[in-house]
Amino acid sequence: MKNTHHDIAPALARALRAARRVVVFTGAGVSAESGIATFRDALTGLWSRFDAQALATPEAFREHPDIVWGWYEWRRAQVLRAAPNAAHHAIAALAHHVPELAVITQNVDDLHERAGSQDVTHLHGSLHAPRCSRCAAPQAFASPTPDEPDAGRRIAPPLCAACGAPVRPGVVWFGESLPAQAWRDATLAAQQCDLLFSIGTSSLVYPAAELPRLALAGGAKIVQVNPAATPLDALAHHNLRGAAADVMPRVLAAAFSAGMAPPASGQGEDS
Ligand code: BJW
Ligand code: ZN
Prior knowledge:
Blueprint: H1 10-18, E1 21-26, H2 52-55, H3 58-63, H4 65-81, H5 86-94, E2 100-105, H6 111-115, E3 121-122, E4 125-132, E5 167-171, H7 180-192, E6 195-199, H8 211-217, E7 221-225, E8 238-241, H9 244-256, E9 269-270
Parallel strand pairs: 1-2, 1-6, 2-3, 6-7, 7-8
Antiparallel strand pairs: 4-5, 8-9
Helix pairs in contact: 1-9, 5-9, 7-8
């Protein structure tokens, strides 16, 4: 059923107020308005010659470690310059309104933490935790703040202090397993929640994309926030079409400050 006006459905506001356990599951779109390119956006400059999907693999790192390391240093510099946006802040604020909130992200940035979210589960690792590609020992960056490398600059990865092998980004590449504890925490939270928000993810990458389905199987309501259609549309109880930084503050206002919801901005159609 389509709402005739672009606002948050009262049924969604009620469900959020009644929920005991809430999961917020995020992807690259939640950081888009902080200026961080989503994963499947066209890359700029030299990077447009490379397919992000091809760079995020163990094979790419083995064959072209300097291209892959340079790409991650460029992205780390971008994240260090960025600040959390209104969506990250709304998600952090949500923790003060519901009895239990689990924030589960596919993102390798730390913008949820910098907005104040606690105990964020990172399914795909972090840009800020490099480790040895052979012995897995945690490593420090040569420079804590990269000197803003140009997009496309090749940078040789540093070598492991313990064994001399190249240092790799602490992220999860295609074909690699997700961190076991993070995945256990995420599946349990999804299975037990009353309401799950899926925000800014294309819902294409597995096993992360299973989480909303696990929540649905456990009886939870699914709320999707995304300006574009995804495979989750057909399953979600509410599809809020819009930018996360616009929609999430309005969701909170609709649920927790009755009568004070800011005016709709023309996005966020609820279906
Ligand atoms: C906005 C917005 C705004 C824009 N507001 N929204 C089952 C079927 C087929 C394949 C597989 C399967 N199971 C496993 C696989 C293989 C593979 C996979 O899923 N492939 C698919 C692509 C088909 N999965 C794996 O390999 C995983 N490992 C695994 O399964 O291990 C077991 C195994 C072992 C050995 C062999 C086989 C299996 C690992 C997946 C790791 C993913 N890693 C990456 C890179 C991380 C490091 C890095 O950042 O470089 O994670 S890939 C990339 O995709 C990254 C992201 O976290 C992830 C998800 O992307 P996300 O966040 O959804 O971003 P986008 O760009 O896709 O979408 C952005 C969305 O935002 C869009 O919808 C926009 O509309 C929206 N948006 N602006 C709100 N302002
Ligand atoms: Zn090592």
